[in-house]
Prior knowledge:
- Helix content is 15%, strand content 32%.
- It is α+β, with helices and mostly antiparallel strands.
- The strands form four sheets. Strands 1, 3, 6, 7, 8 and 9 form a six-stranded antiparallel sheet that branches.
- β12 (180-185) and β13 form a beta hairpin.
- The longest helix is centred in the middle third of the chain and has 14 residues, at 154-167.
Amino acid sequence: MAPQPDVSLQDRTIPPRPPWPDPVVDLAFPIAGGTSLPVDHGRPLLGAVAAVVPGVHDQGGTHRPGDPPRVGVHPIRGRQIGGRTVRLMGWSSLTIRCPSGRIGKFLPLAGRTLEVAGTAVSLAPPRVEPLAPAPALRSRLVTIKPTGGGPPSPAAFLTAARRQLAELGISAEVDATIPDRARERDGDRTTEPVRRTLRIRGREIVGYELRLTGLTAAESVQVQTWGLGGRRAMGCGIFTPWTPDPSEAGAGR
């Protein structure tokens, strides 16, 4: 019997958006030197990048559906070693998500050594990586300002995230979830949604990890191009392909 097509990757109709002259890509600068960084390094990383490329700040105020895609600065990935610290590895990189027409603005980062949260991070010449469609995406931290003010509850956060997904033309069939994490309190083992924070000038911004499954190829690229929520230049709301682990089903992590 001939293999059946993967329905999750069949194209659905997505409402048109204004045309952009260039596709969005990831510009990855391998890290040639450095030791470790705090997990919450979005703000100091943006400051270090902006010291070399001031234009990274030139993205306007509130993002509206008619605006072009915003530049995003990925969190630097590494090996978690405890104490909310990430050890930089041979595969770690500083990755900028931007329209391909803006690549030239970030090339001055090549060969530079950035001071990020007290760590000297040396950057090698970059490679350009096109966005890869995948049926499942993950963002480590999405921050969406709640309508009623105050930190968002998981339910309010998901409602706001689904509203933004709808504005991007993403089908309601796409599953949007906050993963659970195991916790032990007073000897009892329980789970709770993965809630994360971003510290900006002494203020703590609350958000959540978000996973999306059941995306078509077009929807996947759409979400990666636009992202969700705010503070994209500080690493928030940037989505990357993710492979669900069957062993996590119903267990949390």
